[in-house]
Amino acid sequence: QVRLVESGGGLVQPGGSLRLSCAVSGRSISSILAIYWYRQAPGKEREFVAVLTTAGSTNFADPVKGRFGLSRDNAKNTVYLQMNSLKPEDTAVYYCNTPPNWGQGIQVTVSS
Question: Side-chain half-sphere of 2: how many Cα atoms within 13 Å?
Fold first, then answer.
């Protein structure tokens, strides 16, 4: 069974940066076709943020393009979401996903 655990969230000021981690257990990330990041803001539906494929390709939602990046460490079986130039509208619970498995989510709050 694949288990996903997010970490690295917290409170950051606008313009700041955070790096979220998605630690995967139960399967090597090099064998997982794609790992996704989603987020859900209060009162809104969960939305796609980014995806990293096993081939190394990435795709980002328009609101985060140019500000967010993805990387992975196969030795640690972990995928990272680097978030730069954060805005208050990035405030949400961020989830790591590889269908059908979800992490528990991690809160990111961007506020002064």
Answer: 20
Task: Give Cβ neighbours of residue 37 (< 8 Å, ≥ 6 apart).
Answer: 20, 22, 48, 49, 50, 51, 70, 81, 94, 95, 96, 97
Residue labelled with tokens 């500000």 = 67
Summarised one tens digit per residue, pLDDT across range 23-57 is 999 999 989 889 999 999 999 999 999 999 988 89
In whole angstroms, how far apart are CA 101 and each of 1, 34, 84, 98? 9, 12, 26, 5
Considering only CA atoms, which of 92, 88, 101, 12 is closest in space to residue 46? 92
- pLDDT, tens digit (0-9, with 9 covering 90-100), for 48-97: 999 999 888 999 999 999 999 999 999 999 999 999 999 999 999 999 99
